[in-house]
């Protein structure tokens, strides 16, 4: 008989699954564990946890230009 229980104690997945704001948590995890590189975090999630990687998408869109209003 084998009475071994395997626990998944990966802190990255625990924090990401418990997060309310997934995008902010993804940026925080990239800073904390991957030296602020979100591409490495995405690669890690795709290799180890593909279900969690598909849930989290980067919704940030870089602005093309800033709207400037003249005050006369």
Tell me about this structure.
- Helix 2 (22-33) crosses helix 3.
- With 72 residues, the protein is mainly alpha-helical.
- It is built from 4 helices and no strands.
List the helices and strands and how they pair.
Blueprint: H1 11-18, H2 22-33, H3 38-48, H4 50-55
Helix pairs in contact: 1-2, 2-3
SSE-based structural type: mainly alpha
Distance between the termini: 83 Å
Q: Over the alpha carbons, how many angstroms does the gyration radius reach?
A: 18 Å
**Number of helical stretches of at least 4 residues:** 4
Number of DSSP strands? 0
List its traits.
single chain, 72 residues, mainly alpha, 51% helix
Give a quick precis of the structure.
This protein is mostly helical. 51% of the residues lie in helices and 0% in strands.
